[in-house]
Fold each of these.
Amino acid sequence: MKDTLEQEFQRFRGQLRSYLLRMTASTEDTEDLLQDTYLRALEKIGTFKEESTLKTWVFAIASNLARDLLRSKKRWPENVTDICKEAALNNQAFFQEAMQIRHTSPQGEFEIREHIAFCFTCVSKSLPLEQHLVLLLKEVYDFKIKEIAQITAQTEAMIKYYLHTARSKMNEVFDHRCSLINQKGICHQCTELNGIFNPKQNAQEELAKIEMIKAAKRGEKTRLLDLRLEVLKGIDPFESGAAELQLHHLEHNRKVMEKYLEKE
Amino acid sequence: MRKFISFLTMMTTASLLAQNGKATTTKTTFSRETSVSIRIDADAAILWTLLTQASDYPRWNSTILSLEGEIAEGEKITLKSTLDSSRTFTLKVKELLPEERMVWGDGKGTRTYTLSPNADGSTTFHMHEKIGGLMFPLYAKYIPPFDENFEQFAADLKKEAELINRTK
């Protein structure tokens, strides 16, 4: 059984790693949790009764460890990107490091699509912990309601409730904030950063390639969150061409939020 | 036999009418009772979840401005309703039988929520409030009618629960 676990774990390791990053917004916590999950799974494999798939069982272990870590931490506010932008503008070193990554790293590209996923990782941390977890498991990692109920040890009714409330809140936040989908949206960071990191690129041409933005122009509001989540699904935050640049940015935001929430 | 069938038809009609989301009120000298029932296409577990998440009420229920505290047996909760937005009611959760029955109240009144599963997978939601006591005739005229508020509560619950129930 240990051999099966090892093989299976390697198969979904990338997904698990990106799930943990999107839960914690910390590369260090992600690596620790990933390792702890594997060790815990190895230790407990004798208790696996095949009532679910091995992947579901391992995600349950990882989710419990992530919950234990995050339960005592405050959730981030909806305007996290405003707070972090303000901090970045007062931090020259941040932009210097980012430019260095942009020009030297093979994973230093700046793509608006990647920034949309990055932004979701930050903003979704404003959801209550259980809603955040359920939303990611269902809409990004394609677990079924029944499997999420197994992972989280909650009823299917609770999962449906969390999913519904999480989606409502994310719809509301992005509709209010995101200028990509709402002309009156107050956040323009994707295009602003594109101007800094890709000065020669035409942002409008790049935006025109993103399905979510096309749907917003057609007024298909109900589909926008699904299309945003599709963007996330298509990106591995550790392996993409923009990974190093975005992870550097995420680390900056995490540190800013930790300081900000300490003062709250 | 014909009388029996006619009686059955009458009872069935009465029971269907009772689930139409229309509130009814009965009054006596010392009390007033308002009830509403509605059939909801959702599992009782979903209704129960909505009815027991205090801070989430204002999101889906247009009759409630705020509800603070934990909905657990013996706990106190504070409610602000559109019935009288200037007042905050402190209520005790007197009974809690998961997915079946919940009772809140204070010295003047008691509100009971009941969920009854139907054979077709739907659930009948029933809400009943009785206010009264020996002093009731003195303050009765200051208490607004509940009917419209009850009907809106039931309609909001139906809308939200059916939306959640459709989640795949």
Note: The mean pLDDT of chain A is 94.
Amino acid sequence: MTTRQMMFAGQKKFTRPAILIAFGVVAAGCATAKAPDTTAVLTTYADVAEAMFGDAISTAGNLQVAIDKFIAQPTDANLKAARQAWIDSRPSYMRTEGFRFGNPEVDDLEGLVNAWPLDEGLIDYVDTSSYGTTSDANPFYTLNVIANKELQIGADKVDATVIDKKLLQSLQEVGENEANVAIGYHAIEFLLWGQDLNGTGPGAGNRPASDYDTANCTNGNCDRRAAYLKAATELLIDDLGTMHGIWASDGAARQRLLKGDAKEGIAGILTGLGSLSYGELAGERTKLGLMLHDPEEEHDCFSDNTHNSHYYDQVGMVDIYNGTYTRLDGTVVSGPSVKDLVAAKDKAVNDRVVAALATTSKAMQVLKDEADSGKQAYDQMIGADNAAGNKIVQDVVDGLVGQAHAVEAAVAALGLKITVEGSDSLDNPSAVGQ
Amino acid sequence: MSPKRLALGLALLLPAAAVFLIGNSLPARTDDTTQIHKRNHDIKVIRDPALGEDAVARMENVIGQSIFERIWVSAPSSTEAADGLGPMFNARSCVACHPGGARGSVLNKDGTMSPSLLVRFGRNDDGAADPIYGHQLQTDAASGVPAEGRFTVTYAKAATKLADGTVVELQRPVAEVANLADGPLDAATRIGLRLAPAIHGIGPLDSIPGETIIAAADPDDHDGDGISGRVSWLDAEHKTFGRFGWKAQQPTMEAQNAHAFLADMGLSTPLFHDAYGECTALQTACRSAPSGASSQFEALEVSSMLMKVLDRFVGEAVLPNGPKPRATTDEINQGRNIFAAAGCLSCHKDSYDIVWPAGSTKTRRISPYTDLLLHDMGDGLAEELNEGGVKGAEWRTPPLWGLRWAVDDQGHASLLHDGRARNLLEAILWHGGEALPARDHVASLSAADRQALISFLSSL
């Protein structure tokens, strides 16, 4: 997928460091409605999270059923069904991404399920003419767990005769390199699709079903490939269960929000929405690939499903701001929201956030429609010499940036000042040691 | 290059204690892992907290970090906007030499040589390029192009005695080039080693007003304090001066970044247009290798748009707080006083008031501990190469901020321009020339005072 080196290990934790909240005097607001109780807002937030992660487990369960069926009968039809189940499992997970960046418990677990980008040569065979055989940044660039029953990890030889959950967990971020993604949605995606070797041309990965056919095995080690896929899917469900658990009544995230400083909790909601909007989604996942015109920078690159992954990130952010989520079974989780808080404090600011969310949603819809219609996939839209495609993607970036600005205004309106931890050595020569 | 006899009563004891090889992907290992520091912190840089939360700026910073971490590929490739590595190069990414944005170590964690150490070439008189190999030894190359060669480093050991009787063993690296692809170096070419510095704080250093730096220079030592800092003028008219690099050869952060793309990675930028990087006209295979420059991207391998976000990331990078000093506050303060009493502040100027970032109206005090001037550091640190016409014994005062991340829990580090100093005391003891009195002051300290000084430096 990509050879980008992630030497800033733990970047997601460290480049968006601990948040210190300062409470200034709130400017006289033009209150238009009674402000909801902040605890009620936080409760809704946790309820929405619990419901969203619950649905993510449910659709991942469907994926597991389809994968088990495919492994038992590795036919083209069953592979197609498994791929469709993977695509169908993504919306409910992507909607939860708005809970990242504001909740340390989520950030700690996120890498287990959605780590990206990855050096897929760690997992299975790759096309070395495009992928290469070595990386000076990653000694495990072509480790190929599926083909090797014994793995050399530094000075140690690791027995990989049996591919199970424990082995895969031990390989996640091996060598402290974040590109070594052994588990999660994108590892499974690669195992179902294989590499997308079409660049910015049409087409996704095209792994044959016979890669899992032990009777008629292509590319070798079909039994081990199946074991890998099975274990990775089981782990995904385990890890989603853990992420769901932190929002349960006794879960760590819910407990922190309800027992901690309420304003800090509210600030966390907005920090999550703002950070996902610009740094992560607008920046790293979208604008970077657009600037480089590089399909390797595509989020769901094996499956060409990036348009959906972007789209449902946005849908989830709208849900979180509104404090309303319609579950897969049709039931609605709803309650006092951060939107109500902002509206009560300053109607104009809330209007601005709502409008900005709508603008982004509209741009996302255009992106999704373009890809769903079959006109062009996301990796084609970011190609060079494709002004029309580039513009569709740039509109998404612009929308997200505007949305982030609006969220900043909401932070200010609520009298929350979000600042990041300082660096003594630059600012204050006398601070150290005094 | 033969090791010179060191000044200051250092006696050469054991030459060639360990041999390292760099280049051509040959694994280079050493049995003597005590030789050079292997960092045990995973270092990160963060975006300067003073910069606020402007969404576009944050996004560009994140993208710039991705460019900093990006592993470039040789042309031709499927990504025309972002290929063109080489044809000859030292590393494939910025982060390969500046791990986590921090200063490089001579050794990787696994004991192999890191790409952070490279060989610079220049004539002994004016520092002019080697006619074949240019200004730098590129140890790797795109397929079909020979790498220039590789180099070995051997260590000559010497010892010095402090006033309290403590004997400190010092090691001096001696580099030799080998496996040269196009014949021997020119007879007048000399070589020097350079270790990649940290990137943090470069933006603020870039914003120190030039007048302030120039005003602190005293090339003829008119004030008679024994310190004669010299501005690294890059032109005869004294319009431009260098403030970045071990020899202060790059005038701005942007130039430093672009030069790293050119010399270390073989990538062309708006400042340095040559897609063939640093290879000379005599290196025909390199000159005729495919270029990554595409007409729709300004005929450059790194377009101005990519350069802009990379410059933003580097210019905004600072180190996070921590690790917490192990020493007590009292000891650190005592060390601070000793640092001043020894005269270290004459060159390691502590603080500046700057207006940064651009467009800001607020004055901000920074403490980099450098005057960004060139000083004669004596024979011990001298090399025969006169890079850019800067004398072999002259070095730019390196900033000291961030030492708390450069020194590990055991006090080990890879310090000075070639990583020879394995800890702060060794780095101090290598000081000579203008800094000799300060060095001698430290050598005469009691063990407790010496430790206090080290504790202070380790807290910066």
Note: Residues 356 and 403 of chain A are 5 Å apart (CA to CA).
